[in-house]
Amino acid sequence: MDDRARFLVRYAGGFAPEVVARAEGAWVETEGGRRILDFTSGQICSTLGHSHPRIADAVRRSLDEVVHLNSWMLSEPVLALAERLAGLLPAPLDRIMLLNTGSEANEVALKLAKMHTGRFEVAALTRSFHGLLSGIASVNFSMAHAGYGPLLPGSFAVPAPYAYRCPVRHCDGICDCTCLEVGFELLDQQSVGSLCAFVAEPVLSAGGILVPPEGYFRRVRELCAERGMLLVMDEAQTGFGRLGTMFGFERDGVVPDLVAVSKTLGGGLPLAATMASAPIEEDCYRKGFLHVTSHVSDPLPASAGLAVLDVIEEEGLVARARERGNYLLAGLRELQAKHEQVGDVRGLGLLAGLELVEDRESRRPADELGAAVTRECLERGLSMNIVRAGSSANTFRMAPPLVVTEAEIDLALEILDASLRAALSRAAA
Ligand SMILES: Cc1ncc(COP(=O)(O)O)c(C=O)c1O
User: Fold this and answer.
1) Which of 25, 161, 204, 288 has the fewest CB atoms within 10 Å, counting from its CB?
2) Which residue out of 47, 134, 262 has the highest number of ligand 1 atoms within 8 Å of its CB and is therefore the one to mutate?
3) Which value, to the nearest 10 degrees, does the dihedral of the CA atoms of residues 372, 378, 381, 386 take?
4) Which residue blocks in 243-293 are alpha helix, DSSP H?
5) How far apart are CA 323 and CA 304, in angstroms?
6) How far apart are CA 298 and CA 286, in angstroms?
7) Does any ligand 1 atom lie closer than 6 A to the CB of residue 103?
8) How confident is the model over 37-73, as pLDDT tens digits?
9) Residue 100 in contact with ligand 1 by CB distance below 6 A
10) Distance from residue 206's CA to the centre of ligand 1 (Å)
11) How far apart are CA 425 and CA 429, in angstroms?
12) Residue 61, Cβ neighbours under 10 Å: how many?
């Protein structure tokens, strides 16, 4: 680790060994001039690639015009972005609040849900990740509960659709939604009669790239409706094209009650939004809804968001994510055919996962191998991360920018293959 990092709080273990000087497209370049292929799009935010000129232009314009305002003053970029987002969403979702981070967008969604329903119990999937601010972190079941005191009362987990390791030991390979039915049965038996909302990612990303079976969210919708619960979709990573659809919830044709978007809207700048229907917004307004923060409705990130939406549309990046995603998944399946230790490959669009096991028979998670392959990849010029959910950290998450080329995917697959071989032969020595 660079010696200058001694002044930083270590917020997630350690830091990368090299310092980055610049980044462009799917690449970052270190101070030493080493180029590294970024298969995490930063923190899954830079969907247009790093340093996109259209985002840079929008930010420059904003610096000249207006960066920040008192939260009750509105500006053209904020009004334009709200209208644009309302146009992208299905009816009746046409009320938008512009915020900064994904945690905050989920926090606001749950505050609206609680105020609107007058209830407080919230359910989410095991292995879910929704952010680390205290409220939303209560239903963040993949990590980070230990050490921070009590969770919010009324926080419940429903088993995630993890077909490779079925949480209710029922399915193998294809989820038939028994986990969901079991989860709601548990929920009913634990509830104090105040069921408010169910929050979910369309594909669980930090949880190990778990793709729910088709129709899963239609059933979630029914189960919520039977109980008067609102459905909140957390589209932090999946919104604006990554899965090959504009939003992840489109796959099942459901319309959520509230949608939270973040990472992918700002293209690298801190921008998020919570989106609701007029009846929810009007009811909460009447009841005195309050969530005013220093950077709510700031013009600068809103300008960047408009540029992101323009480029996604003009360059057809939603369709591109679908095509390149299929290409990447096909390549990963070839690696699976070659390496016994690649237990499972899964994904949708350009959000792909590769799970490492000690062997296919036992399916024991190969955490050490994962850490070794990550190091080997970085040395060879590929940045990817292993996601940790629960006790194991053995699934690679790949989420390159939507502008990634086939040649860049080929290179990443080559590096991954070589890194797997190197790590395996080192372990065998
Ligand atoms: C699905 C999901 N929701 C919410 C968040 C939290 O977003 P932020 O880190 O911007 O607060 C993340 C971050 O990784 C995420 O992946």
Assistant:
1) 288
2) 262
3) 80
4) 263-266, 278-286
5) 26
6) 24
7) yes
8) 999 999 999 999 999 999 999 999 999 999 999 999 9
9) no
10) 9
11) 6
12) 15
